[in-house]
Amino acid sequence: MERKIKAGLEFEHKADMVKKESAKQIVSETNVRARHIFNDLTEKINLKCPRCKAVFHDYDGCNALICGSASCKAAFCAICLEDCGRDAHAHVRANHGSLFDKCAFKKSKGIRAMAAVTTALHKISGESFELVQQVKNHIEKAQLVAAADNEGGEVGANKSRRFLKTAKDALLRATKNDRLSILQKPENYRPGQSRLTENDLSPRSSIPEDFRVTMTDMGNKIYTLRLECQIDDARWKSIALDKVKEELNDRRKVEAISNLKQGIKCAVIAFEGYGGLFQTQHAKPTKDVNLEEDQICISIMSVSTNGSVKGDMDDLHLNRNLQVIALNPNQRMLKLEKHVLRADESELMFESLRHLVGDGDPIAVFGEILRPVPATYNQLNHEQQKVAHPLKLKTAGEVAGPPGKW
After folding, report:
1. How far is it, in rounded angstroms, from Cα 296 to Cα 289?
2. Are strands 277-282 and 309-310 parallel, antiparallel or unpaired?
């Protein structure tokens, strides 16, 4: 029995050892291959004389270069590395402008490096995860991508553009999500497939059950608003829009309809009997129209599955009388969306924010403190003075952001 058990354990141990050795072999082969791929990549990125392939890193002065190898002496362009025979000056002037534009050299070098990295990663994209990750690790440690950005001469501008794109996408996504927040489960929203009920709507956006809000289409984007509150099981009472708080102050959830006329001018609305949501926007009536106290002029658009808006009221075929069952005012979010879509980059990337993301040189916020330093400051030793005076610390800076406590 002892021999049988021992033999079984030894067999399992040997099998485990074989598996481990096999795994080590695979890892070792992956590491070697990843290193070869990385070496080939760096070889392609290296700057070389187009004729003798001698490697060079940088140069001073003119972009019309001459190879430093005594046996070569090829004249070539520093920007595109084209062999120009005995003199590259004419080529540089004709194709790249100034002979001393070092930024053009750095930019072209960065573009070539980035293209080489992208091509190398694309070639191995279908191979094992371990190999791809090993190559990426080598690239990251060598900072080849960062070097490519820096050599491109636009690292700061690239950071600003990446930050701006990310910020715009996030803000636009927020406005779309805000429209769908009127629903309890926005992920289930399918316009037109089924009618929305109170169970589909968020309680914070729903019109309280003892109130009734009706919009009557008068034509030309003009709607008459009617607000009613329930007196008992059979009776409803009409309430003037400007007297809601005065007459219904003791009613539960009166805040939901207290500013109804203003809120409904720019809001996401759910109508009874419809399966979709609708976005309203304030519109200007024609000059010959004088709106009455209970009338508004709005345009209505449908809300799609992802929260964006499409179409206009003329395409929606809505009934003349519409009962509002949920309302989510979103005027601020629409203003934000318009600003993000229309604003120029310079308006969104103000100076302080540009510096924060690493674009541009830091600037001094102020050079001196106007408030006099107290006499006791001179009684402190050097180390204490460094702590006591912000200009000694040199940590004073401009903070851009919403107001709040610090």
Report:
1. 11
2. unpaired
Q: Exposed, middle or buried, 31 (CB in 10 Å: 0-12/13-18/19+)? A: middle
- SS3 labels along the chain: CHHHHHHHHHHHHHHHHHHHHHHHHHHHHHHHHHHHHHHHHHHHHCEECCCCCCEECCCCCCCEEECCCCCCCCEEECCCCCECCCCCHHHHHHHHCCCCCHHHHHHHHHHHHHHHHHHHHHHCCCCCHHHHHHHHHHHHHHCHHHHHHHHCCCHHHHHHHHHHHHHHHHHHHHHHHHHHCCECCHHHCCCCCCCCCHHHECCCCECCCCEEEEEEEEECCEEEEEEEEECCCCCEEEECHHHHHHHHCCCCCHHHHCCHHHHCCCEEEEECCCCCEEEEEECCCCCCCCCCCCEEEEEEEEECCCCCEECCHHHCCCCCEEEEEEEEECHHHHHHHHHHHHCCHHHHCCHHHHHHCCCCCCCCCCCCCCCCCCHHHHHCCHHHHHHHCHHHHCCCCCCCCCCCCC
Length in residues, the chain? 406
Q: Which of 107-111, 311-315, 366-370, 400-404 has the highest mean pLDDT?
A: 107-111
pLDDT in tens, 114-141: 888 888 888 888 888 788 888 888 888 7
Q: CA 362, CA 351: separation in Å to the nearest integer?
A: 10
Residue 397: count of CB within 10 angstroms of its CB? 14
Is pTM, for the whole model, over 0.70? Answer: no
Lookup: tokens for 132 = 């791809």
Instruction: Give the Cα separation of 244 and 262 in Å (integer).
Output: 13
Inform me whether the pLDDT recorded for 394 exceeds 50: no
Distance CA 252, CA 61 (A): 79
Which structure tokens are listed for 156? 């700061």
d(CA 316, CA 293): 26
What's the maximum distance between 2 C-alpha atoms anywhere in the chain? Answer: 107
